[in-house]
Amino acid sequence: MGAGEVEQFPLTDAERDGALAALVRATGVGQLSLEEFDRRTDLVLTTSSRTEFAAATGGLEVIPPGRAKRRWFVPFGNRLVRGRFFMAERTSAFMVMAEIHLDLRGAVFLVPEPRLRVIALVGNVRLLVPSGVQVVVDQRSLFGSRRISTYGPPASASRPRLAISIVDVLGSVKVTNDEATWSPALMARG
Fold first, then answer.
1. How far is CA 50 from the centre of its chain?
2. Contact call for residues 85 and 79 (beta carbons, < 8 A)
3. What is the rounded average pLDDT of the residues 43-61?
4. How far is CA 89 from each of CA 12, 46, 170, rounded to the nearest angstrom?
5. Chain segment 113-132, per-residue pLDDT in tens
6. What DSSP line would sit under 84-117, residue for residue?
7. Could you tell me which residues are beta bridge partners of residue 136?
8. Are 155 and 132 a contacting pair, CB within 8 Å?
9. How far is CA 157 from CA 53, 70, 125, 144, 183, in A?
10. CA dist., res. 129 & res. 177, Å (int)
11. For the chain, where are the alpha helices, taking DSSP H only?
């Protein structure tokens, strides 16, 4: 079968989804800038040419899947998570009188839309996200609060999206991409 004959077969949704996941992983580990990610994502979503499609994911380093974080349990105290870690499609956190500080700037999203489910009994979640990541928060709360402040390039359909679902009693969630306001007490300690 020649190259011209391969072009006749249309690209499938599964092929496009796989390419998008590869681009998200590559961006998460710093192989691509957000601008390059946008350009390649647009190409993956709009091209009908298999040659252009292959070029969109060409040159990317193969990332070993590693061990994905699936759940955190924090009874009484604080948990700080930063550095490189893999975020699975579904990750959960359960807290009792605790705080979780998640720095997602080094996280590798294994799917374009990871979901974080949090159950907090007198607990707080502090998320530091890279600029341009779209964050959607669904919170069911009894005496809780939420604050989302992200800056920089606006989120778009071609950028990663993080869905956070929170059920809390006397809890709060704070999402930002500004390290200084993420967790001032934590940052003061170094």
1. 28
2. no
3. 85
4. 22, 25, 27
5. 889 998 889 988 888 888 77
6. SEEEEEEEEEEEEEEEEEEEGGGEEESSSS-EEE
7. 163
8. yes
9. 18, 25, 25, 29, 28
10. 5
11. 3-7, 13-28, 34-46, 50-57, 179-182, 184-189
pLDDT for position 112 = 76
In the structure encoding, which two tokens stand for residue 25, read together? 């992983």
Single out the residue of 123, 133, 128, 136 nearest to residue 164, CA to CA. 136
The per-residue pLDDT for range 159-178, each reduced to its tens digit, is: 678 888 888 888 888 888 88
Tokens representing 190 are 């170094």
Give the burial class of 162: count Cβ atoms within 10 A of its Cβ; 0-12 exposed, 13-18 middle, 19 or more buried.
buried
Element (H, E) at 58: none
d(CA 157, CA 171): 30
> 66: pLDDT confidence band, cut at 50, 70 and 90?
low
Structure tokens at 60: 């990317």
- Percent of the chain exceeding pLDDT 90 equals 3
- Report field, pTM of the whole predicted structure over 0.85: no
Contact 123, 168 (CB under 8 A): yes
Q: Please identify which residue in the block is written with the tokens 């924090």.
A: 74
C-alpha–C-alpha distance, residues 70 and 88, integer Å: 6
pLDDT of residue 148: 75
Q: Are 129 and 175 in contact (CB under 8 A)?
A: yes
